[in-house]
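ARCHIVE CARD
Drawer: 12
Card no.: 0347
Subject: one protein chain, sequence and derived structure
Cross-reference: see card 0346
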Amino acid sequence: MSHGAYYWTSIVLAYNSNHIEGNALSQRQTQQLYDTQSFTLDGQGSPIHADDVIETRNHFRAFDLMLDRYKEPLSHDLLTSLHATLKAGTSQSLNPDMWNVGGYKTYPNLIGRFGDAVRTTPPDHVRGELDDLFAVMEEFTGTDAQFARFHATFESIHPFSDGNGRVGRLLMFKEGLRVGALPPVIFDDEKETYISALSAWNLHAPDALAEFMHHSRERYRDQILSSFDDGREFTYRFAEHADMEDFASQTRPADDIPGLDEPSHPDGFTR
């Protein structure tokens, strides 16, 4: 019953029990969170969605998980563990039939919306295409073009119902650490450039995304890591140039990789 005993007991018990343990949400905010999955700060400003709070906390845990396992080769267990950690306790986790948190997608999904939407790998092909990508990454050495190829291919597969970008960027960071190469960090204020370069990528024209990866590695080094360097050389290997001229030699030859001679998708992704 709307606003009946169940409704109020749930809110009052949650507020008081949580408040005992130091939770800072007020009674009003607790009720807002129950009603709308969001709450406002002091009754003003934009609402804060519960999943935003949960996923932010979860991302810290997913980053720690990635660091714990960075030396491992890519595997289905690692990918699904990262996804389960990122999405634990979210509203999506309460609807396993639709979202399958901690597992691969069960329904087809798209990148983008409306006329610009691009189809991704069908659910029943996800494991096979990821296996092909894992095989490519066995020869990964950390060049800009290789980072571009890995990220674009992973995102074109889009293995999860949601969270593909965040998992994909964590995996890029992990793979850089695995081979001792400075990883890229994508900054939000360059989102449009990032999406444009990612959409334009294909195996035979990697330049835009590879150059963006090069820039993102330099920016991470210059704006974050340099604060802790004190003038010493980084242990990360870092190419001073994008190294695009001999892209094929940076990974496996294209004719050795199943599916890479297929036509590109309209947005530039190649399965």
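Annotation on reverse: The first strand starts at residue 38 and ends at 41. DSSP finds eleven helices and four strands in the chain.
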